[in-house]
Amino acid sequence: MPKKVSSLLVGLFLFGGVAILAVTLVWIGATRYFDRGKLYVTYFDESVQGLQKDSEVKYRGVKVGRVTDIRIAPDNRLIAVVMNISMRDDPARTTVAQLTVTGITGVLFVNLDRRRPEDQAQAPKIEFASEYPVIISKPSEIRRIMSAIEDFAHKLKDLDVVGVAAEVKATIRDIGQLARSKEVKGILTQLERTAANLAFVTGRVEKSKSAGTLQDTLTDARATLKEARQALNALTREVEALKVGELRGQMAQITRDLRGTSQNVKQASETLEQLLERLYQRPSDVLFGKPPRKRWNE
Question: How far apart are CA 63 and CA 53, in angstroms?
Fold first, then answer.
């Protein structure tokens, strides 16, 4: 026959089980108590799709709490996210909240970071009483990218592309008309003629110096120089009459180039005149000076 179980052993077994259960309950309760932290709320002016209850709340990557509730704010515009946070400092005064994506899964968590002066301007305005201390928020990186794309699209839409294209075509057409105009062709002809005259006069002076017939050449040289100056003055008047700078601003470079060319021609004529004047007053420079070197084809 089986021996009768002692009632004392049964009592001890039951007492031990109850004690273990009590200790377990106390441990769980204490853990929940120390893990409770303090409730805070932050308001987001964007979609919180991917954020849910019990989502993590991190401070610079370190877990400091969890999301306890997600609901619509009293103004029916913002989204209120209630969080249980355990931090030594008051996060409502020192941190800013931002939605952050976990990898490529699309799951969100609330990331806390140190508050900067410009964060207050980015935070949504709270125009109602809040049940918990408020941690300000700033737009997520996804929201910033989407906002930048929207702004670019609006600016592109507001841009008068047709008008700009028409303006460019009109400018190109005016440039072509100016390049084909008689005034520009006349300017180029005058420049070529003036340069040729100056080169001719210079050559005659050099030859006269080497041949000793400078006195016979001075009169012709002065006449040629006078003709070159008259051509240069006519060229200057034609450039001024064009008023190219008024052609939508794009033709200013052409005007500067033409003016630069005319200045170069003017300087060359002045240099030639000084040479003629010196030789006319002191022809001994030709008689006693060294003759120029002969060229390879002379």
Answer: 15
Instruction: Give the CA angle between residues 279, 281, 286 to the nearest 5°.
Output: 35
Contact between 292 and 210 (Cβ < 8 Å): yes
Q: Are 217 and 272 in contact (CB under 8 A)?
A: no
Q: What is the pTM of this model?
A: 0.46
The alpha carbon of 88 is separated from its chain's Cα centroid by a whole number of angstroms, namely 42
Q: Which two tokens stand for residue 152?
A: 């670019």
d(CA 219, CA 164): 59
**Tokens coding 221:** 């040289």
User: How many CA atoms within 13 Å lie on the side-chain side of 7?
Assistant: 0
Strands 62-72 and 107-114: unpaired
Amino acid at 281: Q
Number of Cβ within a 10 Å radius of residue 298: 7
Residue 135's H or E segment, with its range, is: none
107-151 pLDDT, tens digit each:
899 999 999 989 988 899 999 999 999 999 999 888 887 777 777
Q: Is 157 left (phi over 0), alpha (psi -120 to 50) or beta?
A: alpha
Strand intervals (E) in the chain:
38-44, 56-59, 62-72, 79-85, 95-102, 107-114
Exposed e or buried b per residue across 184-195, where buried means at least 16 C-beta atoms within 10 angstroms of its C-beta: beebeebbeebb
Note the pLDDT tens digit of each residue in 28-44: 665 555 456 899 999 99
Which sign, positive or negative, has the C-alpha torsion 107, 112, 117, 121?
Answer: positive
CA separation (Å) from 2 to 8, 11, 197? Answer: 17, 19, 144
User: Cα 167 to the chain's mean position, in Å?
Assistant: 25
